[in-house]
Design goal:
Layout: E1 9-11, H1 13-31, E2 38-44, H2 48-58, E3 62-70, H3 72-75, E4 83-86, E5 96-104, H4 108-118, E6 124-132, E7 145-149, E8 155-156, E9 172-174, H5 177-182
Parallel strand pairs: 2-3, 2-5, 5-6, 6-7
Antiparallel strand pairs: 1-9, 3-4, 8-9
Bound molecules: inosinic acid (IMP) and magnesium ion (MG).
Length: 187
């Protein structure tokens, strides 16, 4: 199915499915007695595959909204130069909010987003991430639901990309130089 398969599978489709189900059950238990639909907020683009599976497993009334930010990696590496390029379309005032991320690395992106969302006075604000690279953290963050802890290796698949490629893999894997070449990188 994927002829230029990039490398070692770290989390298989089955492992991801089971973990997402567990995370969804924990979210269901925490929010089932709360008033109003849960406002699920996703940061484009990496989280969209995880989001799609998670929301269908949660089994609660929810709404979904998206934010997009400019990546500091593209221009000023490791700076906190984060900018909102697409804002939420609905108010989160007095709402229960769950921010869903693909991976938290330095934490700079999410700490900026959480500060921004808190100013809008949500009722509760929780964080759910599929992957956590705690060893790279610069900005400390509270994580309420975490799928897997990961190390230094760069990961692709299940929404995660390298230069916009590999998001459609059903599993999460590390990327070799060959995979990088095939994603359009040379040298
Ligand atoms: P942070 O601000 O350093 O926490 O950046 C988090 C964002 O960087 C994630 O939402 C991803 O979009 C991206 N990212 C970090 N590590 C990886 C990786 O291993 N593969 C793909 N994207 C990554
Ligand atoms: Mg992301």
């Amino acid at each position: 199915m994927y002829p230029d398969f990039p490398e070692r599978v770290l989390f298989s489709e089955e492992e991801i499915t089971l973990r997402v189900r567990d995370m969804a059950a924990a979210i269901h238990a925490d929010f089932r007695n709360e008033p109003g639909p849960l406002a699920v907020v996703s940061i484009l683009k990496g989280g969209f595959v995880f989001l799609a599976d998670l929301i269908r497993a949660v089994g609660l009334d929810i709404t979904v909204d998206f934010m997009a930010i400019s990546s500091y990696r593209e221009s000023r590496p490791r700076s906190s130069g984060v900018r909102i390029v697409k804002d939420l379309s609905e108010s989160i005032f007095d709402r229960n909010v769950l921010v869903v991320e693909d991976i938290i690395d330095t934490g700079l992106t999410l700490s900026y987003i959480l500060r921004n969302l808190k100013e809008r006075s949500p009722r509760r604000l929780k964080v759910c991430t599929l992957l956590n690279r705690a060893g790279s953290r610069i900005a400390p963050l509270p994580i309420d639901y975490c799928g897997f802890e990961v190390g230094d290796e760069f990961l692709v698949g299940y929404g995660l990309d390298y230069l916009q490629k590999w998001r459609n893999l059903r599993f999460i894997c590390t990327l070799t130089e060959r995979g990088g070449e095939r994603a359009g990188i040379s040298g």
